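Quarterly update from the structural biology core.
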Amino acid sequence: MFKKLTEISADPWAWADNFNLTFGFVNFNIFQKYKKIQKIALYGAGLMLAAWMLFGFDSTPLQFLHALYDGVPLYLSGSGSIEQLGAIYSEYYGKEMHYSAFVIYFGLFYFMSRSWEKAGITKSKNLAFSFAAMFLSIAVFEWFWILSFSAFQNQPWISTWQFPQAKILIQNSIFTLVGVLTVIYMLTERWFWKGTQQLGRAYFFRMKSWIPWILLAASIGAGLLWIYYPFDVQLFTVALENGEIWQSSRLFPQTLYTLDMDPADALNAGTWFYMENDLIHAVNTGVKFLWSITTYFIFRVRKPLEAEL
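Predicted structure, tokenized:
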């Protein structure tokens, strides 16, 4: 047992790459088939792009899921109609995670993985770094959205650690931790795993290039544009269950508002109010896209340090 732990600790990446997970004729070690994961991400991005273009600018996979689980059983049982099926599908337009988000994050994973492969980073390390970069990109955008919506739309519940909303905050915290720890690992891997006295970088990040800095400035600028949105916004009010009237704000406008209808209860959850506006959705998507591209250029590396010595 101690010998095995010593072997794993000496080079955990090599151990993961060579771990035997073959059952019958099927090899379940995805690290050995990391290029297939790349293809899945690429084809997934292409499929989501086609769905996005076909089903509408603000369309979401949730539309099909609800039509499938809520509408089809009614239709097959004879108690529902095609019109009701279509109504269920339309009801969830613009709600939850959009096709555009899948295009952006699948694409980020693919290009990140390919970039590291060219730098000699393959198999388990390639997948770990690719997922970590994608998770960190998601987390940064989600923290920006959560804190901005909480502050500018007067919905503080969305950033408080009370269930069920706390599940989202825990998820984002995990994504953030994974991303930050991966960056620290990449910066110090040579010192930790090679036994050298030199505390130095294991990978050369391309931060001397002007491109990451321009993209970072563009991402911040796009975020500020969204907060201080200069175009027309359809304002509306909602009567809450405690008798108060909530008024939407011009700051950080949305197409989907999630409101806590009873701020005094113990349930930290919201109700959806959809306001179609393709321009606002374009700004939302643009901020997400810009930050993902920024993540790509920040994480893109040249060859590992030991390969250049």
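The chain has one domain: 27-59+94-308.
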